[in-house]
Amino acid sequence: xxxxxxxxxxxxxxxxxxxxxxxxxxxxxxxxxxxxxxxxxxxxxxxxxxxxxxxxxxxxxxxxxxxxxxxxxxxxxxxxxxxxxxxxxxxxxxxxxxxxxxxxxxxxxxxxxxxxxxxxxxxxxxxxxxxxxxxxxxxxxxxxxxxxxxxxxxxxxxxxxxxxxxxxxxxxxxxxxxxxxxxxxxxxxxxxxxxxxxxxxxxxxxxxxxxxxxxxxxxxxxxxxxxxxxxxxxxxxxxxxxxxxxxxxxxxxxxxxxxxxxxxxxxxxxx
Amino acid sequence: xxxxxxxxxxxxxxxxxxxxxxxxxxxxxxxxxxxxxxxxxxxxxxxxxxxxxxxxxxxxxxxxxxxxxxxxxxxxxxxxxxxxxxxxxxxxxxxxxxxxxxxxxxxxxxxxxxxxxxxxxxxxxxxxxxxxxxxxxxxxxxxxxxxxxxxxxxxxxxxxxxxxxxxxxxxxxxxxxxxxxxxxxxxxxxxxxxxxxxxxxxxxxxxxxxxxxxxxxxxxxxxxxxxxxxxxxxxxxxxxxxxxxxxxxxxxxxxxxxxxxxxx
Lengths: 271, 264
Known about the structure:
- The complex is a heterodimer.
- By secondary structure, chain A is mainly alpha-helical.
- Chain A has 11 helices and 2 strands, in the order ααααααααββααα.
- Chain A has helices at about 5-15, 30-45, 45-55, 70-85, 90-130, 135-160, 165-170, 175-195, 220-225, 230-245, 250-265; strands spanning about 205-210, 215-220.
- The longest helix of chain A has about 40 residues, at about 90-130.
- Chain A is elongated and about 95 Å long.
- The relative contact order of chain A is 0.08.
- By secondary structure, chain B is an all-alpha fold.
- Chain B has helices at about 5-25, 30-40, 45-60, 75-85, 90-115, 120-130, 135-160, 165-170, 175-200, 205-220, 225-240, 245-264.
- Mean pLDDT of chain B is about 90; it is low at about 255-264.
């Protein structure tokens, strides 16, 4: 009976922190996946079987790096059963991997790239703008604690549940989590669009001398702010969303906004 | 400012880590908030590094690698712009202005490197034929090495020549209308990142929540922590009350009462 030890498991966890580092356009995370499986393959197989196992895990793979951690766990569990004589074919192992990478990437992208990172980074950045070291520290600690917990328990969960996890995926637990993350993310994005942007159009509309001798100046910006602060950034956000949906490269949009900034500054309509 | 050998070595190491992280995206050392801070520390001006990091981080908020898509290179932009601001004595506005074209150039370099690393994938196939597990490790770290050099080589070149007269003359030749305009644009360029995040959620039916956040921010002085907490509460209540998630519950409750009756 060949058994994966807890030490092997810990090495897999350490290696998983480099999951996507060797990304390539041909098979994406394939090399990274095989790299994580090395301690498991070493423990379970020798000779021809080892070569076969290595080839098996050099097949195309691509998912969200941390949300995909349970897949590594399940694969480890399946390999262990296979090494102990159970009839699990290559295509079953590959089928589980391929079948899970899509749904887990679908959960991981909005939760990590869409919510956790923008939230913690914006929080850190808002502190950093005043030069406080707390900004970068908060971002680093907050993000990485969550990431490491997800990685470790994802791996353990996948290994413990094995192929039963497919049933869990079919339930609405993940859907709840994804939808909840989207709500939190969108709420904070709304606040960011309003508050963590600045547009000032200092074009004077009217100047009135008050009775006490003070001059009250009305600019386009003061009129807009009376309606609702942050209207221009809101408009720009929708323009950007539209352009991005049309597959315009973000860098070109940024250059375009830069051009608007320069021309506006030069003409004196932006400050 | 001429940089010492130790500083150059430290910049090389930090930019290697930032380059690898740009691909792996684990510890987030490629994010401007962390990379700029470290470079600022090396160059002896931590505070400026942190401020550039915070400014660039907001611009880069939505930059992410999804599937095969390559994002603009936040690592390259962060490292080089911090060197230019601190060691090249530029304004933060000018630093940001230089960072954006760098991110675009880095995106092209990123595509090139992801193609180069196909070599290691094939090399790994050869090692699999031999059953050589150590070979897999070599290939994986080899590919990561390419990503490290992607950022480290351009960064170290800039760091070596930042003190020279030619580089200074080039930086000083940027007209003030450009730096001023870029500073103004910095105030609203962040919306591109916000738009990227909103789009990736793929939940147009949840846009009312976005507007709620917008109006809340417009008329209150809450900070981001408060918005985070309120957002979390809304998310929890939405999930709890959503009939979509409560069908099973309702059914279980009905079934429960029926079985209770039977017991009576």
